[in-house]
Design goal:
By secondary structure, the chain is an alpha/beta fold. The radius of gyration is 20 Å and the shape is globular. Helix 4 runs parallel beside helix 5. The longest helix is centred in the middle third of the chain and has 21 residues. The protein is built from 10 helices and 13 strands. The N terminus is likely disordered. The strands form 4 sheets. A 7-stranded parallel beta sheet has the order 3-2-1-4-5-6-11, sandwiched between helices. A two-stranded parallel sheet has the order 7-10. A two-stranded parallel ribbon has the order 8-13. Bound molecules: nicotinamide-adenine-dinucleotide and uridine-5'-diphosphate (2 copies). One uridine-5'-diphosphate binds next to helix 6 and strand 8. It is a single-pass type II membrane protein.
Length: about 350
């Protein structure tokens, strides 16, 4: 029915994604690549809740069907097992491109960031969809500017052990801007800072998941190096809110999305002790190569242009993740005492 396809006042053209926030509208058709993963599955929950039709494209490299099972059987939800490194034909309005092996343990030697992003941009171009790239604070490398502002070009070792991820995302940003300038694709770029929450991969090697799983299992928390390096930890619901505001807003970005609360790894270990087990021990391990010494987002731009800022502090968010980890590690009958 034509009127519905045009939406109200013809303002919403199929494929344009131009729908003012907060207005009643026909649900959009949205692709979430990597929707089986940690961040993606929370995003899918929000999109489903607002009435969109959601297609998840995921090869389950690090994602899990369990993160999405509650949507199985809903006619607005579709799950496609597919590697985004291969082309795919879909008809959609918006593409949230999250597919990426995101943990250092997984991301080595994987072409997803470059070839997968190219394919999703090709798809966006063909169907006139709006495309959002989830880039990363890693594009700033071991930053010489603190906190990091979007205008900072970064300090990345192009031949280091992390460069596959860092440079992969930098290339993904380049491709995104080239498709924007060259082919007129509507694009959005988010630079995501360290994010944690329920459904994080238990053994994916990232620091928050490692410490929480270790403390729950009564194993020592592995602090790499002297533990004085810093990170800023964002709760997943804050990130999802930021991603959706970015997609619906009028600004290309890049935008830093992160929580400016900065912690050393030793301070993080202390928060985990407070939350799980005051007697949890710490084990020092050699640090990985090229580990950034500090990281903290300047979120002034997102505050001003997206009206966004994180709401959940680490000490509030961590317990929510811990109860999810407890259930997944010890089973449904976890008694709350590990
Ligand atoms: P995740 O590993 O939980 O999710 C990534 C998902 O992508 C998984 O479901 C995985 O199976 C899927 N995937 C990987 N390669 C694929 C491929 N070739 N084809 C199809 N699917 C593929 O990680 P996450 O933390 O949810 O990260 C989501 C996005 O956010 C990533 O792009 C990541 O780079 C970015 N990001 C995350 C953080 C963070 O702290 N979580 C920080 C910066 C950036
Ligand atoms: N692509 C895709 N789905 C589409 C359209 C394109 O997967 O609906 C892939 C396509 O196979 C190509 C990439 O996206 O590998 C870039 O497409 P584009 O049309 O920009 O480049 P071209 O094919 O002209 O080189
Ligand atoms: N780290 C740690 N113990 C771990 C895992 C990581 O001390 O078990 C440190 C790591 O060296 C880095 C910080 O925690 O300094 C964040 O690492 P993560 O892999 O979570 O994220 P990224 O390095 O991508 O910010």
């Amino acid at each position: 029915f034509m009127f519905q396809d045009k939406g109200f006042n013809g303002e919403f053209r199929l494929g344009s994604g131009k729908v003012p926030l907060g207005l009643k509208r026909k649900g959009l058709r949205v692709v979430v690549t990597g929707g089986g993963g940690f961040v993606g599955s929370h995003l899918v929950d929000r999109l489903m809740a607002r009435g969109d039709s959601v297609i998840v494209v995921d090869n389950f490299f690090t994602g899990r069907k369990e993160n999405l099972m509650h949507h199985f059987g809903n006619p607005r939800f579709e799950l496609i097992r597919h590697d985004v490194v291969e082309p795919i034909l879909l008809e959609v309005d918006q593409i949230y491109h999250l597919a990426c092996p995101a943990s250092p343990v997984h991301y080595k030697f994987n072409p997803t960031n470059v070839v997968g992003t190219l394919n999703m941009l090709g798809l966006a171009k063909r169907v006139g969809a709006r495309f959002l790239l989830t880039s990363t604070s890693e594009v700033y490398g071991d930053p010489l500017q603190h906190p990091q502002v979007e205008t900072y070009w970064g300090n990345v070792n192009p031949i280091g052990v992390r460069s596959c991820y860092d440079e992969g995302k930098r290339t993904a940003e380049t491709l995104t801007m080239d498709y924007h300038r060259g082919a007129g694709v509507e694009v959005r770029i988010a630079r995501i800072f360290n994010t944690y929450g329920p459904r994080m991969g238990i053994d994916d090697g990232r620091v928050v998941s490692n410490f929480v799983a270790q403390a729950l299992r009564k194993e020592p928390m592995t602090v790499y190096g002297d533990g004085k390096q810093t990170r800023s930890f964002q709760y997943v619901s804050d990130l999802v809110e930021g991603l959706m505001r970015l997609m619906e807003g009028e600004h290309v970005g890049p935008f830093n999305l992160g929580n400016p609360g900065e912690f050393t790894m030793l301070e993080l270990a202390q928060v985990v002790q407070e939350t799980i087990d005051p007697n949890a021990r710490i084990d020092f391990r050699p640090n990985t190569e090229d580990d950034p010494h500090k990281r903290k987002p300047d979120i002034g731009k997102a505050k001003e242009l997206l009206g966004w800022e994180p709401k959940v502090a680490l000490r509030q968010g961590l317990p929510l993740m811990v109860s999810d980890f407890r259930t997944r590690i010890f089973g449904d009958h976890a008694d709350g005492f590990g």
